[in-house]
């Protein structure tokens, strides 16, 4: 088929050749129509989903695997920390019972407190008395397979199970000992001077007496076979 180009434009030949060219172009166009239609349909089907839609699809699939729906996943409660929770660990089955070790050290600390008081180191006597009481109470917790945390003797006494509850007057004595945990050692807890300048023999003797009472209370509550 001959075609003539003039002035940059394509001209249709005249006569039978022109009619033949028209027929061939019409036939070619008709063959292209189904292909274009298929491409349009395919592009509509294969549209890429948005990131959010893809995320929701993944969450939904994971929820079904876990036996939950996507809605229930979104409604799961968020557990807030309980600031009034006990200071001891609730994982009782993980605790290796060391009742005897804690109580032996409590007795040793009390002996050290007595020697410190006799030697005039009243601040150290008060601190060692607090340590003796703390370790005795932790020994009591060990006897029930609980690992007590923290250093507040009064708080640990108050959080004991009802079968081991301490009398209120003993809790009050424990509060006195709690006050010796830090000020007996650090000067910056006093307006000036050092802890040794502030502690008196009367305070040391009272701390010793309070710690002794707490040790006796714990010894009476701990099964004797755990202390042998």
How would you characterize the overall build of this protein?
The protein folds into two domains: 4-74, no CATH class; 92-226, Nucleotidyltransferases  domain 2 (Four Helix Bundle (Hemerythrin (Met), subunit A), Up-down Bundle), CATH 1.20.120.330. Helices cover 57% and strands 3% of the residues. With 228 residues, the protein is an all-alpha fold. Mean pLDDT is 79; it is low at 1-8, 68-73 and 87-93. It is elongated, with a radius of gyration of 43 Å. Helix 4 runs antiparallel to helix 5 (122-143), helix 5 (122-143) runs parallel beside helix 8 (201-221) and helix 7 packs across helix 8 (201-221). It is built from eight helices and two strands, in the order ββαααααααα. The protein has helices at 16-45, 51-65, 70-74, 99-118, 122-143, 153-158, 168-178, 201-221, and strands spanning 4-6, 9-11. The relative contact order is 0.10. The N and C termini lie far apart (117 Å). A two-stranded antiparallel sheet has the order 1-2.
Summarize this entry quickly:
Helices cover 57% and strands 3% of the residues.
Structural class: mainly alpha
At CATH level 3, the topology of the largest domain is Four Helix Bundle (Hemerythrin (Met), subunit A)
Going across the biggest sheet, name each strand in turn: 1-2
CATH hierarchy: architecture of the largest domain: Up-down Bundle
Low-confidence stretches: 1-8, 68-73, 87-93
| Cα gyration radius (Å) | 43 Å
Number of E-type strands:
2
Query: Considering the protein shown, what is the CATH homologous superfamily of the largest domain?
Result: Nucleotidyltransferases  domain 2
Shape: elongated
Helix content percent band: 55-70%
Mean pLDDT: 79
Intertermini distance: 117 Å
Q: What is the CATH class name of the largest domain?
A: Mainly Alpha
Number of domains: 2
Sheet having the most strands:
2 strands, antiparallel
So how many helices? 8
Strand content: under 5%
Strand-and-helix sequence, N→C? EEHHHHHHHH
| Assembly status | single chain
